[in-house]
Amino acid sequence: MRHFQFLSDDQYNSIFQVSPGTWSAASPKEILAYALGGTLYMPGTRTQISNDILSGKFLNGKYAGLTSMVICLEDSISDHEVIKAEMNCVIQLQRIYQSICSQEFLESNLPLIFIRVRNPFQIQKIIDDLGSASTLLSGFVLPKFNATNGKEFLEQIYRVNKAYNLSLYALPILETQEVIYKETRMEALLSIKNLLDQYYEFILNIRIGATDFSGLFGIRRDSNTTIYDTVVIRDCISDILNVFGRGDREYIISGAVWEHFHTGIPLGESNLFQSDKKIEFPTILNNQINKAFIQELYLDKMNGIIGKTIIHPSHIQFVQAFHVVTHEEYMDALSIIENADTNNGVIPSTFHNKMNEVKPHYRWANKIILKSKVYGVLHEQQSFIHLLGLHDRVHI
Fold it and tell me: Lowest-confidence range among 13-27, 144-158, 197-211, 256-270?
């Protein structure tokens, strides 16, 4: 896989100083954790999954640019649809597997595929039912994850990996009341952290269940509000970042879902980043994106969040574009790393507009270099805006 595969070679060259690298499901964990980007959730009852993939819609169709997806057997389907969804999930993946075996479809064009299960025991069932097609999976998303049920979730993944020689990852979702309620939060987070540390090698990222959190308070943000404007959720995200984002044993934390689409707030006149420079948006995009969505992506980035849960194809390019490294970020990161052994004090930015302090900025610089290998680096005069509107997206 490669981010922005729908671009032509000329477009790659005109936009990127350093082009996005290629990677596969077999790449190292640190690459895959960054590479997920916008992870699209699909209900397990959707019967068009294999058709959409095999017909190329993930390369040049309405899902263009998508690199990871989740087939959901949990909250996106009704309780009475579980068996139907399980069967459909297996059928869809086996169809894809047969097409790969017959060389009608290249496995290198397959996005990373995860399944969100309802309980730990569903993991073994799905793997057994899939048979050889289980090799298409990259892992399982684990809902309502806590220190009590988490042990069995992770043990199930460990067992199937060992029994079937698989390399499946776990993606736990933090979304339960003991995590969001202030009086129990820190004990819950530290207990979860202690558990995840025992299985660190196959924890791909940690996901934030903002919808479930909001539901516990009977609130729902509208399309003009970022998740960071919802104070109880912001408070919880802060603690999640504090516990799991530390340098001693850091976990990649994925951004909360954006629930809205086709909201039509023009952005051509908007000043999103509180600077004197206004961002001009292509006219074609003015009625397709929302200021709050872009602002939330910006705040995700500023808080060190990588990737985001998405529920609509129109979100794909925005999430992916926001992960591309800017020319200025890249030059600062290179300077910091190059001076780490010779000048570990303060050095001026290449752009002479900020202080680069080698010791405290060193971990940031390494993250930027890692991200640049996955998403690429923009030319100096380019911004994420130039990656939008380059593909004719067809919305469902």
Answer: 256-270
Is a pLDDT exceeding 60 seen at residue 273? no
Q: Do 44 and 87 form a contact (C-beta atoms < 8 A)?
A: no
Q: Which helix H or strand E contains 266, and what residues bound it?
A: none
Mean pLDDT, residues 13-25 taken together: 95
The pLDDT tens digits for 281-291 are 444 344 445 78
Given a contact cutoff of 8 angstroms between Cβ atoms, the answer to whether 245 and 253 are in contact is: yes
Q: Which amino acid is at 322?
A: F
Q: What is the CATH number of domain 21-324?
A: 3.20.20.60
For 71, which DSSP code?
A: E
Could you give the CA distance from residue 24 to residue 111 in angstroms, rounded to a whole number? 9
Per-residue pLDDT reduced to its tens digit, 340-360: 888 778 888 888 788 889 999
For tokens 């005069």, what's the residue? 381
Distances in Å between the Cα of 117 and the Cα atoms of 170, 202, 291 are 11, 17, 33
> Residue 118 — very low, low, confident or very high, per pLDDT cuts 50/70/90?
very high
In this model, does residue 266 exceed pLDDT 70? Answer: no
The CA distance from 136 to 109, in Å, is 12
Question: The whole model's pTM is what?
Answer: 0.91
Q: Cα(71)–Cα(209) distance, rounded to whole angstroms?
A: 16
Contact 113, 136 (CB under 8 A): yes
Tell me the domain boundaries of the chain. Answer: 21-324
Residues 6+ apart with CB under 8 A from 134: 126, 127, 160, 164, 166
Nearest CA to 170 out of 147, 137, 134 is that of 137
HSE-CB of 202 using CA atoms within 13 angstroms: 22
List the one residue out of 56, 139, 143, 49 whose CA is nearest residue 90. 49
Give DSSP secondary structure letters for 286-348.
TTT--HHHHHHHHHHHHTT---EEESSGGGHHHHHHHTSBPHHHHHHHHHHHHTTTT--SEEE
CB 283, CB 268: distance < 8 Å: yes
Q: Is the CA virtual torsion 44, 50, 53, 56 positive or negative?
A: negative
The answer, yes or no, to whether residue 333 has pLDDT greater than 90, is yes
3-state helix, strand, coil in the chain (%, to 5): 45, 15, 40
Contact by Cβ (8 Å): 375, 67: no
DSSP state at residue 227: G
pLDDT at 68 over 80: yes
